[in-house]
Amino acid sequence: MSTHELKHLISDAPRVMVVDGSKLVRRLISDVLKRELPDVEVVGCASIAEAREALAAGPVHLVTTSLALPDGDGLALARGVRETAGQAYVPVIVVSGDAQQHLEQRRFTEYVTDYFDKALGHEALATFIRGYVQPEPVANATVLYVEDSRVVAEATKRMLERHDLHVVHVLTAEDAFSLLTAESLGRTTRQVDLVLTDVTLKGELSGRDVVERIRVDFAYGKRRLPVLVMTGDSNPHNQSALLQSGANDLVQKPIEERLLVTKVLFQLRLARMAQPAVVL
């Protein structure tokens, strides 16, 4: 489902379920949704039991849930949403203070669409939710894209460019390091705002090497230069290693445009939020 289709679906029948034991979090997410979609009906639920009642009352079009609920596990709720009769496939987003730990340990199931770590703060949460319901381009953003398949690169590049992102494509990790080195030495006016790399690359260096070099040799933190890794490897140990090496997030293959763009734009916005204000 594309973002356009999601917005169209929500605008036709605006019913969103927000499940969290915290009244503050429920209210924050509700406020964001109502601001971006004035006609939306937000169904706030403090527990799995309340969520089941809401699902029984009719289908929903987007779900957010905490991992820890008073009467059970948010992952079980996600599965329940998927298995509810008459419920179409919709985004199910985990909002939790343990999201990063679950991500690194690969504990999220296929029932979860995406995740947000509460440690990033309320403003970032508002930005994240907005990315789903009312995505906006990030002005003048450049993505350095490392992919050795020209066919895959062309398709992915078009996805990103449709959202007004400037994409610089290179075939190897070595080419990426050359561009980043030139930038760090002031030999180019280009500024890379985010790196997107496939985990498997031709040559001696892989996507994991890209992550490690950026974090260690260039000493760029996750907010200074976000790195997203595309991978078709379902091995939890390998995925955890990528995240522990410093990847901001993973993009699972085959690539789904809505998720890719949501993740890219969110990381770009987080990076810009972290930049110091300019004093005039």
Question: What is the strand and helix layout of this fold?
Answer:
Elements: H1 3-12, E1 15-19, H2 23-36, E2 41-45, H3 48-57, E3 62-65, E4 68-69, E5 72-73, H4 74-83, E6 92-96, H5 99-104, E7 114-117, H6 122-133, E8 142-146, H7 150-161, E9 166-170, H8 173-184, E10 194-198, H9 207-217, E11 227-231, H10 236-245, E12 249-252, H11 257-274
Parallel strand pairs: 1-2, 1-3, 3-6, 6-7, 8-9, 8-10, 10-11, 11-12
Antiparallel strand pairs: 4-5
Structure description:
There is one protein chain. The chain has helices spanning 3-12, 23-36, 48-57, 74-83, 99-104, 122-133, 150-161, 173-184, 207-217, 236-245, 257-274, and strands at residues 15-19, 41-45, 62-65, 68-69, 72-73, 92-96, 114-117, 142-146, 166-170, 194-198, 227-231, 249-252. The protein starts with a helix and ends in a 6-residue tail after the last helix. The strands form three sheets. It has a five-stranded parallel beta sheet with strand order 2-1-3-6-7, sandwiched between helices. With 280 residues, it is α/β, with parallel strands linked by helices. Helix 2 (23-36) packs across helix 6 and helix 6 packs antiparallel against helix 11. Residues 1-6 have low confidence and may be disordered. The longest helix has 18 residues, at 257-274. The protein is elongated, with a radius of gyration of 19 Å.
